[in-house]
Amino acid sequence: MDYGYGLIGIFILFGIVFVIFTIFFAGLLRPQRPNKTKLENYECGEAPMGGAWIQYNVGFYIYALIFVIFDVEVVFLFPWAVAFKQLGLFALIEMLIFIAILIAGLAYAWKKGALTWES
Amino acid sequence: MTLTLIIIQIIKVIAIFVGLLTAIAYTTLFERRMVAFIQGRVGPNRVGPAGLFQPIADAIKLLFKEEFIPDKANKVLFSIAPLLSFTTAAMAIAVIPVGDSITIGGYQIDLVISDLNVGILYIFALSSLAVYGIVLAGWSSNSKYSLLGGLRSSAQMISYEIGLGLSVVGVLMLSGTFSIAEIVRQQSGSILNWYFFKQPIAFFLFFVSAIAESNRIPFDLPEAESELVGGYNTEYAGMRFGLFYLAEYCNMITISALAASLFFGGWSGPFLPPIIWFLIKVVIFLFVFVWVRGTLPRFRYDQLMRFGWLAIIPLTLVNILITGLVMVLKG
């Protein structure tokens, strides 16, 4: 399987070339008559009020933070799961302690209201 | 590696890519006909016999549509987003085996682009990257609807990604490998070897997370058309919009193929050729996707996040614990 990643590389190349080709091809075929109104952002037919690059709800950042922690947990769990047959009870207890700490964190975040949208 | 083998491998890559595009095109038609059937309508049936040329007509229409980049948008990111979205969606299929290995002219050919020994990790890596396409599309448009759609989508996709990852851990514990072809091989022989029967909870959690991960109804908050117009792709038109559309259906196909491979024995089955069994299983999952779309209303956003964090993730952890205990007790 030494050339396996090479084949995936070729496949990815196909995907990229397909996208670029379709957009290029469509560019040759489609009409191109832009005007000022067309190039405005859509806002239900009204003239748009202000931009959209604004501060948004801090709740999204908190989700991102918790996500990073749990994603690392998943990354730890994957190799553990694959090797679990050889490791047995001791590994299960170890992983239980690890997950318990994370669950405590999740419970804390829940209690603090980080996972609800009550603001 | 001889020249013949290289040619065979490249033909295989082309065949799978073309097959994937065809499958995406006909999944769109399948969904429209099925939703129509559920809603008591006829659906698209005019273009060609029974509407079979409809996807071609759609593609031609999208190619001829005028598209423009809004003046206030970030033009570079606006152009890259559809590329990211489609490529990451399409590439995930590369590690899913569509059939058992066959022998052509003395060469043994696996019916998979590449059976990586880290196949499942590869799929999750790509599904993480898929978030970028949607977030960049939402942010770069500089439109309020797009931004809201992009933000919702990012929070939703990263939340359910954890559920998706944790739900397959049970299968990984039983199989002891990341290679999808190997997992499929372990399930062949008898229907009772399917991991669905050993990990039923994991399967349901996997499927719910998967529907959320691919932004489908009832978790289609990012593009909730009644409140956000089109969500992250509001400002897109023509072929760029088409690429987002393709990406969504491609995700459905990948998830269906993954569910069939991990829990329902992939290509294994009696009498019929393996590839037919694989297609049958994938189509059944696609039908479930459409069925869910046709029957369920949309979640509210806070319900969606609470469901993800306080139901799916704890349940997956409990499932891992039970699996571990049973495996230890059985020795």
Task: Give a concise summary.
Chain A is an all-alpha fold. Chain A has helices spanning 4-29, 59-82, 84-87, 89-111. Chain A is flat, with a radius of gyration of 25 Å.
Could you walk me through the main structural features you see in this protein, from its secondary elements to its overall organization?
Chain A is mainly alpha-helical and 119 residues long. Chain A is 65% helix and 0% strand. Chain A has four helices and no strands. In chain A, helix 2 packs antiparallel against helix 4. The termini of chain A are far apart. Chain B has one domain (3-43, 56-330). In chain B, 68% of the residues lie in helices and 3% in strands. Chain B is built from twelve helices and two strands. In chain B, a hairpin with a 2-residue loop joins strand 1 (99-104) and strand 2 (107-111). The radius of gyration of chain B is 20 Å and the shape is globular.
What are the low-pLDDT stretches of chain A, counting only 5+ consecutive residues below 50?
A: none
Kindly state the percentage of residues in helix of chain A: 55-70%
* Biggest interchain interface, per-side counts: A-B, 68 and 85 residues
Oligomer state of the chains in this structure: heterodimer
Q: How far apart are the termini of chain A?
A: 53 Å
Number of helices of chain B: 12
- Give a count of the beta strands of chain B, DSSP E runs of length 2 or more: 2
Arithmetic mean of pLDDT of chain B = 84
Q: Which CATH architecture of chain A would you pick?
A: Up-down Bundle
What's the name of the CATH homologous superfamily of chain A? NADH:ubiquinone/plastoquinone oxidoreductase, chain 3
Strand content of chain B: under 5%
Rg from Cα of chain B: 20 Å
* Total number of distinct structural domains of chain B: 1
The rounded Rg of chain A comes to 25 Å
Please tell me the overall pLDDT of chain A.
80
How many beta strands in the DSSP annotation of chain A? Answer: 0
The coarse silhouette of chain B is globular
